[in-house]
Specification:
The chain has 7 helices and 9 strands, in the order αααβαβαββαβββαββ. The protein is of the alpha/beta class. It has a single domain, classed as Vaccinia Virus protein VP39 (Rossmann fold). The chain is globular.
């Protein structure tokens, strides 16, 4: 499958570095922080009966969503094969193995979202991901990423061109005029109960 990757970042996350990330991205403390974030996200979301996550890794966000909404229908699109193995152990989860730069779902979900994923996408490929998120959403789009007013690249664990910060939500709002901002929030890494790597989340809704 590696020959099909369009960007260096896809090859990076599908390979050994992505495998190592799978092993780091586990634990109840991380899951508690994600559950806290989603409890805040859902306050103004209305009814959410289904959701698809772009780049879920081992599925901490999906498990957190199911803790809050036990009957929710869940799907995932994941590039790393080792992470896909973990995802397939989650009961009732529909898993698509591939890049989020490609269109994998042919139906819509109440919520289409990603968390800590757009920051690792080649900036030139972001429009394709925005389009796929928008197409997969029947009503809501959630982005939880590192925010910066202007695009900037930051070294990531000794690697260049692997982490990018920008106003992802603002770019989606500009790209799709029928999206409106519903709510947003921030999770500080020094939160005494739910530290979460300084993520800023934005919940948007289709208005037509």
């Amino acid at each position: 499958m590696a020959e099909a990757w369009k960007t260096e970042q896809e090859a990076f996350w599908s390979g050994a570095f992505g495998d190592d990330y799978v092993d780091r991205n586990r634990g109840e403390a991380l899951a508690a922080g994600r559950t806290h974030m989603f409890s805040n996200v859902l306050r103004r979301a209305g009814r959410v009966a289904s959701a698809v996550e772009f780049g879920p890794n081992v599925g901490l966000n999906l498990v957190s969503l199911r803790r809050l909404l036990p009957a929710i229908e869940l799907a995932a699109i994941e590039i790393n094969a080792k992470a896909v193995e973990s995802l397939r152990r989650i009961d009732g989860l529909t898993v698509h193995h591939g890049s989020i730069l490609e269109r994998h779902v042919t139906r819509t979900y109440d919520l289409a979202f990603c968390s800590g994923v757009l920051i690792h996408i080649n900036p030139d490929a972001l429009p394709a991901v925005y389009d796929n998120l928008y197409a997969a959403s029947g009503r809501l789009v959630l982005l939880a990423e590192y925010y910066n007013p202007a695009p900037v690249a930051i070294p990531y664990r000794g690697h260049a061109e692997r982490l990018f910060k920008r106003d992802f939500a603002g770019e989606m709002l500009d790209r799709f005029p029928d999206l409106r901002l519903v709510d947003y929030g921030f999770q500080y890494h020094r939160d005494p109960n739910f530290p979460a790597d300084d993520l800023t989340w934005f919940l948007m809704e289709k208005t037509r």
